[in-house]
């Protein structure tokens, strides 16, 4: 790149803007220089030869004056910031057994036909007895009717609205939309799902929203909803390290939690389930971080007489998870280390090796079928709103994990659906073993989204009379 003085042949910079010509962008820099200067702070070395600028050691994408480096490091936006109180390293990561994790993943395309057939036989055997055809729960909600009928919304926006309306409809069916709740949206992005929940509860008091997103997000919609007792708070943290019981608003208000998510990719779903069902619910079971002090034998009778009263008091104060409603996707991004259904896989004779193959084969249900019009339209839907559903399945992965000429498109699609079902069933069993009534259902048509499975769960003791089907 070269500096360009005003009037030297490439036109002139915008008045009041930097005179540096950015060769890569074929235009002048648009930053505002200091009064009396031709160049901005980033390109000031062009007219200040006596001061040297060097790349910032925290982020080499920007530079800083060498003689002001120490001052800059204290305020650089790329510096490591203090961890929030609800950050607990790897609290939701699960137990990592190094001996179980394969050292190297072998591309599926390098498998022999016999090895592939053996994998498919294992898959079908493990899937035997599972409900292969999920029931449809394609619902809607009045809160989105105006937006759904707005002709100004394009096709992509309409598809997202239909999915959000169905998620809210399923939440209403499970009696999860009500006062005195804290809705935790995992993988919140811009927070549009919470936005519609808030619209649906516009006349309801004592409602809190926690939007969990590890990345910095632009164009957030939750800033528009600051009314009454309803509050929106963003938690910029990876779900893997989120300890809900240490979030100040939950410590203060002690509201029952409803976990929600739209297109929560791969391992993020498992991290969210563990965050809700284990790390948060555990605190409601009266477990203490420190062991109780030793007591003498004369105190045991008193302890025994008070134990039942203390337990009842803890149960009264306990505000557990009221429900879970998560739209699933991106099974090819699942990870055995974080997967909550490992016990289920082991119970059907499968392990980490098979899991690593199945999670990659699951992409066959939605990828590599460009000849179908449904896939083309859905791919556009999923990539348009990248903050909600990021397509991370690269061309390299796609080419190495497909088998042209060995399996037909329909066969790959069927196997991919079986892989997804098997992974999701492990999640259902995980929730059932922990006292939840869990179910899988289609919440949208495949023409709206190929990732159209919704995982719902409510505590078994508090099930509504109408059973979840």
Question: Gap between N and C termini, in Å?
Answer: 63 Å
Q: Give the amount of beta strand, in percent.
A: 5-15%
What number is the mean pLDDT?
A: 81
Helix content: 25-40%
The SSE string, one letter per element, is EEEEEHHHHEHEEHEHHEHHHHHEE
Strand tally: 12
Based on Cα principal axes, name the global outline. Answer: globular
Q: How would you classify the helix and strand content by structural class? A: alpha/beta
**In terms of per-residue confidence, which ranges show pLDDT below 50 for 5 or more consecutive residues?**
1-8, 286-318, 369-388, 390-399, 462-469
Determine the number of helices (DSSP H or I, runs of at least 4 residues): 13
State the strand order across the main sheet. Answer: 8-7-6-9-10-12-11
Rg, alpha carbons: 27 Å
Largest sheet: 7 strands, mixed
Question: In words, what does this structure look like?
Answer:
32% of the residues lie in helices and 13% in strands. It has 469 residues and is of the alpha/beta class. Residues 1-8, 286-318, 369-388, 390-399 and 462-469 have low confidence and may be disordered.
């Amino acid at each position: 790149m070269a500096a360009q003085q005003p009037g030297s042949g490439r036109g002139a910079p915008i008045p009041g803007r930097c005179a540096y010509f950015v060769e890569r962008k074929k235009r002048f820099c648009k930053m505002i220089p200091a009064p009396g200067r031709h160049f901005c702070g980033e390109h000031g070395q062009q007219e200040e030869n006596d001061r040297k600028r060097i790349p910032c050691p925290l982020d080499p994408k920007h530079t800083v004056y060498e003689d002001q480096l120490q001052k800059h490091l204290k305020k650089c936006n790329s510096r490591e910031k203090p961890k929030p109180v609800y950050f607990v390293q790897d609290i939701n990561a699960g137990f990592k057994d190094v001996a179980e994790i394969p050292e190297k993943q072998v591309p599926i395309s390098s498998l022999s036909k016999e090895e592939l057939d053996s994998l498919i036989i294992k898959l079908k055997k493990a899937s035997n007895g599972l409900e292969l055809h999920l029931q449809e729960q394609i619902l809607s909600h009045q809160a989105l009717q105006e937006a759904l009928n707005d002709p100004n919304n394009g096709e992509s926006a309409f598809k997202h609205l239909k999915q959000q309306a169905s998620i809210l409809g399923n939440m209403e069916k499970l009696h999860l939309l009500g006062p005195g709740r804290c809705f935790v949206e995992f993988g919140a992005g811009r927070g549009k799902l919470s936005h519609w929940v808030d619209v649906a509860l516009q006349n309801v008091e004592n409602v809190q929203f926690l939007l969990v997103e590890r990345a910095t997000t632009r164009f957030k919609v939750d800033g528009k909803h600051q009314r009454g007792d309803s509050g929106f708070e963003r938690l910029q943290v990876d779900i893997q390290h989120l300890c809900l019981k240490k979030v100040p608003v939950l410590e203060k208000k002690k509201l029952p939690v409803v976990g929600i998510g739209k297109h929560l990719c791969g391992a993020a779903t498992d991290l969210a389930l563990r965050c809700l069902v284990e790390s948060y619910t555990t605190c409601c079971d009266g477990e203490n971080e420190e062991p109780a002090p030793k007591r003498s034998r004369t105190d045991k009778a008193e302890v025994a007489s008070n134990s039942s009263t203390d337990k009842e008091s803890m149960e009264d104060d306990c505000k557990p998870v009221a429900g879970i409603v998560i739209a699933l996707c991106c099974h090819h991004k699942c990870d055995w280390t974080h997967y909550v259904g490992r016990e289920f896989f082991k119970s059907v004779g499968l392990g980490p090796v098979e899991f690593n193959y199945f999670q990659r084969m699951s992409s066959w249900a939605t990828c590599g079928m460009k000849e179908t019009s449904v896939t083309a339209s859905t791919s556009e839907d999923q990539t348009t709103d990248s903050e909600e559903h990021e397509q991370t399945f690269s061309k390299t992965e796609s080419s190495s994990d497909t088998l042209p000429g060995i399996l037909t498109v329909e066969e790959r699609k069927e196997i991919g659906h079986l892989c997804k079902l098997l992974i999701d069933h492990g999640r259902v069993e995980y929730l059932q073993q922990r006292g939840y009534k869990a179910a899988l259902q289609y919440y949208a048509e495949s023409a709206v989204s190929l990732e159209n499975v919704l995982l719902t769960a409510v505590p078994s003791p508090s099930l509504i009379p109408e059973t979840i089907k």
